[in-house]
Amino acid sequence: MARQRQTDRDTILAAALSIADERGLDALTMRAVADRVGVTPMALYRYVGGKSQLLDGVVERLLLEVTLPAGRLSWREQLAKMTGSLRSTARRHPEVFPLLMQRPAATEAAKRVRDAVYATLRSAGVAVDEVPRVERILSTFVIGFAASEAGGRFTVGRRALDGDLAWFGEHFLAAIESAGADQEESGQ
Amino acid sequence: MARQRQTDRDTILAAALSIADERGLDALTMRAVADRVGVTPMALYRYVGGKSQLLDGVVERLLLEVTLPAGRLSWREQLAKMTGSLRSTARRHPEVFPLLMQRPAATEAAKRVRDAVYATLRSAGVAVDEVPRVERILSTFVIGFAASEAGGRFTVGRRALDGDLAWFGEHFLAAIESAGADQEESGQ
DNA sequence: ACCTGAACACCGTTCAAGT
DNA sequence: ACCTGAACACCGTTCAAGT
């Protein structure tokens, strides 16, 4: 039944993710995953459709690792927590994380994170019809930043990058706030 | 002599780039490149070190396609032009462009673009020791944005994305300006 | 329903051999 | 100096066959 298959699918994706973490993205092959699960490569095709869907599933798992902050925190704290969680996910899975930037943000797990950001932006006072735009800009930067850091694109150390994030946060939050203020004015 | 080899290397990289453009990144194989150049796969190894260095070279070529704006334009126009050029490069080479985000920004061609951004930021009044930081943030966003657009990560159309860039530009330039203003104050 | 063996059409890369 | 043939150790995927 579906339950059993789902479990097997999870096992397969977990194996795939840890192979990529341990031996790199190039080592993530159908055959290696099958080996780790203790099965023939061809047996995987029933659970994941093929190599590219396997990668989709792995990315999905990555997004599920992102912790969503409690709603009672201030919106500034919420955004900071989500950024931090995404960044640490990138550090835990530097090989796979960049794939996040190359695949459509249309999956269920992507929606989960996006909706959380939407809610936070709303509570920051951003106008409803501005929310998707601000989210796209924010996620593009944060994911890009985390991927760059984890992938070694930057040539500076972690302290400098902490400062980058602080600089961005300071100015971006100001932008959000002014967008929120505009809304207050015209809204009531 | 070196001249001849350089030309051959360029021919190889050009062939590689157009294969990726036409048939996708997966179709970019040593064998396919060799075929197009009219040679055996093993002959490529003298000019490009191997597959991963071939990809490095292709990324290098990509960066050389980015047009750097004339210095007499205003810094706002310069940044807008560079962003536009990067975005159109991404559209011309959507398969290869995302690699830009995964490889170190330490090559000669990367330096060429970065130095241009440095100069523009300087002329915008950004403090010398803030320049690398602002450049990292800016390039992370712009490259990430262009890669997301070209790779189909966004689910909205081009008009909305034009608006995104305008929104980011408006607020980011304001941030740069305020950083510049801080500098003026304390500087003289 | 689930897994396998055997096979197909590919890969990147090494190395000795040719010119 | 430059290129090739042959070979090695891999890939993803299909399909008929087994249980």
* Bulk shape of chain A: elongated
Strand content of chain A: under 5%
Q: pLDDT below 50 for ≥5 consecutive residues: which ranges of chain A?
A: none
Radius of gyration of chain A: 19 Å
Gap between N and C termini of chain A: 55 Å
What's the quick description here?
With 188 residues, chain A is mainly α. Chain A has helices at 2-23, 30-37, 51-64, 75-92, 108-123, 131-151, 158-187.
How are the SSEs ordered, and which strands pair?
The structure is a homodimer of 188-residue chains.
Chain A: H1 2-23, H2 30-37, H3 51-64, H4 75-92, H5 108-123, H6 131-151, H7 158-187
The structure holds a DNA duplex (19 and 19 nucleotides).
Describe the overall structure:
- Two copies of one chain form a homodimer.
- Chain A has 188 residues and is mainly alpha-helical.
- Helices cover 69% and strands 0% of the residues of chain A.
- Chain A contains seven helices and no strands.
- The interface between A and B is medium-sized, with 35 and 35 residues.
Features:
69% helix; DNA-binding; 188 residues; mainly alpha; homodimer
